[in-house]
Amino acid sequence: MPPLLPCPDGDFVELIRALTTLPRRSDDDVTGKLRVSIYHRKLGGYSKEALQFMVSTVLDELDWFPTIAQCKAILERWKRDDGAVQRRASAANLARAERRARFDDIMRTLEQREFDQAAIDALTANIRSIAAERGFLRLHDDGVYRARPVPCGTKGDSENMAQVV
Q1: What sign does the dihedral 148-116-126-95 (CA atoms) show?
Q2: What is the C-alpha to C-alpha distance for residues 67 and 159, in angstroms, rounded to an integer?
Q3: Which of 1.10.10, 2.60.120, 1.10.490, 1.10.8 is the CATH number of 9-77?
């Protein structure tokens, strides 16, 4: 994911100036410029989007001009949500769906007892374990997972089940 660019100097000054609507200790021109310089040194590496979030949050939540520590605490809450993040989330969802589809296909094939022993041996240990829990494979004393035999019902069994129900 490409890194976000630091906030341009002019935009940074404008954003910090927006915070001056909050009460603070009185400053002269030199102290005010020094404050902006110090805040820029400590916060200037953040993106414009992150700083806009911080300014908006400060104005909503704080009663006084924030300290640098308060600004950083608010910036930690910011979550990047640009196109790169959305593309990454979309790709992750597609990959997750693909893995789930492959897993479901394997379980369906195991349930239908269509894998030979070589294919069963090629499965990951985790998938073999899950298949055993679902009753498709059985772990034998020699440590090898093998397909469980297909249960065979007789006509009498189904008739007896019909009477029970």
Answers
A1: negative
A2: 80
A3: 1.10.8
Question: What pLDDT, on the 0 to 100 scale, is given for residue 152?
Answer: 63
Residue 109's pLDDT is 94
Q: Which residue has the higher pLDDT, 69 or 92?
A: 69
Residue 31 tokens read as 């102290």
- DSSP β-bridge partners for residue 6: 47
Please state, as a whole number, how many other Cβ atoms lie within 10 Å of the Cβ of residue 134: 12
130, amino acid identity:
I
Q: Give CA–CA dist 27/17, Å, rounded.
A: 13
Q: Where are the extended beta strands (E) located within the chain?
A: 137-139, 145-147
Please report, as a single letter, which amino acid is at residue 7.
C
Give dist(CA 146, CA 100) in Å, integer.
23
List the domain boundaries for the chain: 9-77, 98-149
- The CB density around residue 145, as the number of other CB atoms within 10 Å, is 21
Q: 20 or 121: which carries more pLDDT confidence?
A: 121
- Nearest Cα residue to 137 out of 153, 124, 152: 124
How far is it, in rounded angstroms, from Cα 26 to Cα 121? 75
